[in-house]
Amino acid sequence: MTDTKKSVHGAWSSRLAFILAATGSAVGLGNIWKFPYITGENGGGAFVIVYLFCVLLIGIPIMIAETMLGRRSQRNPIEAMELLTEEAGADKNWHYLGWLGVIAGLLILSYYSVIAGWASAYIIKAFSGGFFGADAITINGIFNNFIASPAQLIFWHSLFMLATMLIVARGVQNGLEKAVLFLMPGLFVLMILLVAYAMTTGSYNQGLRFLFVPDFGKLTGDAVLTAMGHAFFTLSLGMGAIMVYGSYLPKKISIAKTAFLIAGADTAVALLAGIAIFPIVFANNLHPGSGPGLIFQTLPLAFGNMTGGWLMGILFFVMLVFAALTSSISLIEPAVAWLVENKDLSREQACVWSGLAAWALGLGTVFSFNVWSDVKFFDRSIFQLMDYLTANLMLPIGGFCIAVFAGWIMKRQHSEQELNMPNKAGYQAWKILISYVAPSAVFFVFLHVIGVL
Ligand code: TRP
User: Fold this and answer.
1) I need a surface site. Which of 234, 369, 413, 420 has the fewest CB within 10 A?
2) Considering only CA atoms, which residue is closest to atom 8 of ligand 1?
3) Where are the domains of the chain?
4) Assigned CATH for 15-422
5) Is the pTM of this model over 0.70?
6) Tens-digit pLDDT profile for residues 211-253
7) Ligand 1 centre from 134 Cα, in Å?
């Protein structure tokens, strides 16, 4: 497309680099921490099925659309939307979509960093041998004592945010590409070992049944919204993160194929986490719906009671923190890219300001687990409110707009050219999903939740 302004963008060195970075963004706390606990809270099987359908019919088409919009514009999300609307001859207001993304990213990062801080603290706890031979009550006590301490949570939250800022300040190529290469395979192997342990607990089948046998009677409207929101969250969609990554993607590469690969890997990690965790939950008479502490109350039991568990525990939490880092990078990147390209800040300055904003917001989440645990808005703690606002509302709304833009506003010839699919049927299928299926699915779920349907 014709550029009036020179892009200050870098570019990925290869298709692999993009896949690694996008997978790094997708695979994170969402898969290993959030998926199991929201599955537990929402009754298991039926929730999982809705989630899988959402990934397939909404997530993947929107991932293709978001990557496409990024690559076509070669810009940060706000400017990308400006340029693309100009190209399509559409209303200027579409660039607010870019804004929604920048804000959603910082809001998510605020609590993401707090939870990643928990995972960081658990590296030390694993190292010190505290899980050795421990029972469920001891493990529970360790967790409850930990989250009761604002000072500890703030310390680890700050450390994680600092790490995010430092990595992003070093720039796209250096910061992102390398970490994922050893991280993903490592995490995968550890998840499989944990599943092997789950098989020895005696409750393996009960765990599997909970995860995969649906009871649609238990499915509430809010559960459907949570499942849909999580499809966006886990694939990093709806706020421009993938748009930014797409903007660094060389023109020759097939967007659709890469999207399937990334979504496949992401879903596999989440399911493995569920398969590992629920048998441990049932074997120890724990409650599947015990909330955001679920992995911290279950996995240490595995590490404390299996051979080689000490080392595995350390490795697991180290890798979880790295997985969180490669995700948090993509949460802050839209804000940073925008500040650098528009406000003439250096990359370092942009990182400091965005990171500080998210850090300060994160204090609300920290306190919601202890001193402010009684503070409720609409029946939700600050952490729950942040999560609901972003994952259940902002991301689906962002995704809806992306779908409408890619399906209805952008000229067909442009999307066809950009996606460049070898077979016509593939493009046609995507076009139907993005124009009709994805937007109406989001729309009807919203209607259902506000009680209209
Ligand atoms: N997908 C990440 C996870 O599952 C979280 C994440 C990273 C994200 N970047 C995002 C979520 C952008 C929404 C939008 O842990």
Assistant:
1) 413
2) 236
3) 15-422
4) 1.10.4160.10
5) yes
6) 999 999 989 999 999 999 999 999 999 998 998 888 888 888 8
7) 33
